[in-house]
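User: For a benchmark we're assembling, each entry needs the component sequences followed by a predicted structure for the full assembly. Here are entry 17's components. Please fill in the structure.
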Amino acid sequence: MNSPVRKRRRWPFFFLLALALVSLLLHAAKLRRQGDVQGLCDQEAMLAVTQPVEKSKAQRARFYMSRFYLGYPASASYAAADLVRRIAEISQPPVRLLAIQIDLGLHDLGFELTIEVAAAGPKAARRKLAFFLERLRDLSGVFQAKSSPASPSVDVSGGRVFVINGRAELS
Amino acid sequence: MMTGKLARFLLRFLAILAVLAAFAVLDWYPTVKELGRLRRERSDLEFRIRDYSAMAGKFEFPDEQENSLLASDRGELLRALPRVEDDDAWLRLAHSDLQGWTKGIANLMVLGEADAFGPERPGLTRWLRHQAQEIQQRFQAADPWRRYPWQAVFPIDPEDKGHLASRPLGVALDAPLPELLDFVNHFSWGDARLEIVFLRLEPVGRSARAWLVCRGSYQVSGPSPWLVKMDKGEGDGELIIDPDSPLLLQKVDPLLAPRIEKKELPPAGSPW
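Assistant: Structure for entry 17:
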């Protein structure tokens, strides 16, 4: 007579025990993993102390950057002056250099040329411009040069004015 | 009778579900989430340690020779930076630097500010007034508060009395092209170490006129409106170095470093 009652009273206990067991296992896994992570953190900290790689790398990086800084002003001035010199030398009639702008960056420079091309018509002017662009791209260090897509304006002397944008290395 | 049994069964079932849900929400879910985070952290640490060990295997540790080279380089860098009492002293230094290279140049104007075009120089001043807006823009671009590319090079010691300052300076001139280009090339050779930021040049007959904006860095002991904000790193246009470069694993080699050289321009008519 008593056995069904005893059965009814036991199952909630086993049910709660099973739930608690799952919790216990999860917490045990968490503790173990926390121990692993702490061990690895210690190992990483020890590596940085015994082998100060990052500190030496930072010192070396600063060395190369400071050498770059020390050499930069003279190399930027030379690059700007030399580019103007070379562009002036190839700007021979029918091309006339009206203006040149140079915007210096740390590793390269941007330039903008305004040129006047003396030609009878727009087609002839475009042909002469293409020839000039080819010569410009042949200059050592110039890695980009293109004329502005806008149609050229005609100046008072009858020549056509083009704007050319490009980039060159900072040698 | 049947209804009472069903109700008791349902009540029991709901109670079981409630206990299960309470365990899941209050304990299991946060623990599983924490386990996931710890797993990711562990993988990350393992990767970093593996990476560090692999790098340390290839790494050449510094010796006495390298340490002395690094120390002397640091000294050279700080000596290269002019030390002045105030901004006016630096302007005087820059002015005297530029005067040293004015051979063959009759018309030279140094602009401490974007619109300071006086005293009147025939032809040059009017041309500069015509370009005032562009000059103003270029001065602003060289302002250290907007952009200073050398922040990584100068981690200035806060206990040091000097503060890093940088200011833009303009120069305008009118001269035959070879002399003008010679001046531009020699522009940075002086103690002020002026860096050209922008140059505009226009040939006029057999001559040429130009204006340029440059930047100069210096250590100033007095107060200055041109102090570089060291905590401001916008990243854009700053000098950066690849931290994973194999170059940094080897001992520094002065031959691999950028060269510090002052070259004369080739004579006119030279091949390029």
